[in-house]
Write a structure and sequence with these properties.
By secondary structure, the chain is an all-alpha fold. Helix content is 77%, strand content 3%. The protein has a three-stranded mixed sheet with strand order 2-1-3.
Length: 320
């Protein structure tokens, strides 16, 4: 039998969001607004925490890490999605596709682990308040934050390596709006069952382990809050956890809906996933500032510092 010639894939074509004919311009400006708000909101939180010495505490140190993560997470897929909507630019190089797969899983895994670390921080603050600063000292916080980034980079490297060691020599059309593992792996010219099973198990174990650890932390937190004698103490303890609980719900909730409801239509699944990838990075800074007087005060200081710098700059220009 003669051998069949195959062309080695050097680029992929993203199909984008299905069934949006005539809505590209509206979606472009909507997603662009979400993207810019995510960048500006998280950058403001990062700057406020960095500048204000009162926010140099473990909780805000982890919030600063979350702001950096959301800036990166929103930048993995949004620029290409905007290019597809505005200019119908669907082609992505093999290297660009690999970068999307790596950074998506790297940042998503880091965010998952960081939420777990933040839950542990709240557990120590509420259940062991007298030893909080002793337990969550600078060295421990640095190690916990660095551990989330390093572990996630290893995790993402393994997943990306498994995906792109497969031979790609047939169709290069990815039925998705960015390069993700399973839509890309379906295009491989080899049996992908074992690799897809390993990848799915690996990703599921990370997310499930994080979810269970967060759940255990909050069971202990709720138990400690219920035992408090002071109603004011219970209110303050609950308010410190409210923002974290909301963002954790927004992170794990859509994933649970997609993976536990296989009968959902593809359009609904795409809508849920777009909410996670596009809207959530914008909502996180809003959630942490609306109920947090310390961050709001720091943002006002940052605005005042910016106005002072502007006045000084104008004064210097006037003298010249």
């Amino acid at each position: 039998m003669g051998q069949v010639n195959h062309t080695v894939v050097t680029h992929f074509i993203l199909l984008g969001i299905p069934n949006i004919d005539g809505l590209q311009t509206i979606l472009f400006f909507t997603f662009l607004a979400f993207y810019l708000c995510a960048l500006m909101g998280n950058l403001l939180i990062f700057s406020a925490i960095l500048i204000d010495p009162h926010l140099h505490t473990p909780m805000y140190f982890f919030l600063c890490n979350l702001a950096v993560l959301d800036i990166g997470f929103s930048s993995v897929n949004n620029p290409k999605l905007l290019a597809i909507l505005w200019a119908n630019s669907r082609t992505i190089s093999l290297g660009g596709c690999m970068a999307q797969v790596f950074f998506f899983h790297f940042l998503a895994s880091t965010e998952c682990l960081l939420y777990t670390v933040m839950a542990y921080d709240r557990y120590v603050a509420i259940c062991h308040p007298l030893r909080y600063l002793l337990i969550m000292n600078h060295r421990v916080c640095t190690l916990l934050a660095a551990g989330t980034w390093i572990a996630s980079s290893i995790h993402a490297t393994i997943l990306t390596s498994l995906t792109f060691t497969l031979p790609y020599c047939g169709s290069n059309v990815v039925d998705y709006f960015f390069c993700n593992i399973f839509p890309v792996a379906k295009l491989a010219c080899a049996d992908t069952y074992v690799i897809e099973t390993v990848i799915f198990t690996n990703s599921s174990m990370v997310s499930m382990t994080c979810f269970l650890l967060i759940l255990m932390s909050y069971v202990r937190i709720v138990y400690s809050i219920v035992k408090m004698n002071s109603a004011e103490g219970r209110r303050k303890a609950a308010s410190t956890c409210a923002s974290h609980l909301v963002v954790v719900t927004m992170f794990f909730g859509p994933c649970a809906v997609v993976y536990t409801q296989p009968q959902l239509s593809k359009a609904l699944v795409n809508a849920v996933e777009l909410f996670v990838y596009v809207v959530t990075p914008m909502l996180n800074p809003v959630i942490y500032t609306l109920r947090n007087k310390e961050v709001t005060t720091a943002l006002r200081k940052l605005r005042g510092w910016s106005d002072t710098c502007t006045v000084m700059w104008d004064s210097c220009r006037g003298r010249k």
